[in-house]
Amino acid sequence: MAQHKKGPAPRTIALERIEILFDQAYRNRSDPALADRYVALAREIAMRHRMRMPRKFRRAFCPVCHVYIVPGDNFRVRIQHGKVISTCRICGTVIRYPLH
Ligand SMILES: [Zn+2]
Question: Can you tell me which residues bind Zn(2+) (predicted)?
Fold first, then answer.
């Protein structure tokens, strides 16, 4: 019988890889081309496993053009009326979310 049930679940491995990729993106945030590449790879893994991007990474990249977010660099972050308003400097997308 084929041993395909050994080791951690594929999604656990996928999550681990996504974490490594976002960690690398963070370390290479001064190199946008490289950081964006890590985001692209992380998204590919999530899509392949049909899993939702974990909450902590969902705000790490632009939902429209997928650039890795570096506040103050490619993203403008402002707080207004108790909401965080982030504007992507690459594609102009505005993201608003409540401030807790
Ligand atoms: Zn964008």
Answer: 62, 65, 88, 91
Distance between CA atoms of residues 36 and 68, nearest Å: 5
Question: Which of 13-17, 33-37, 95-99 is least confident?
Answer: 95-99
Predicted structure pTM score: 0.86
Distance 12 CA to ligand 1 centre (A): 29
Q: How far is the CA of 61 from the centre of ligand 1 (A)?
A: 8
CATH of region 10-98 = 1.20.5.420
Q: Where exactly are the structural domains of the chain? A: 10-98
Cα(58) to ligand 1 centroid in Å equals: 13
Separation of alpha carbons 4 and 51, rounded Å: 20
* 88 among annotated binding-site residues: yes
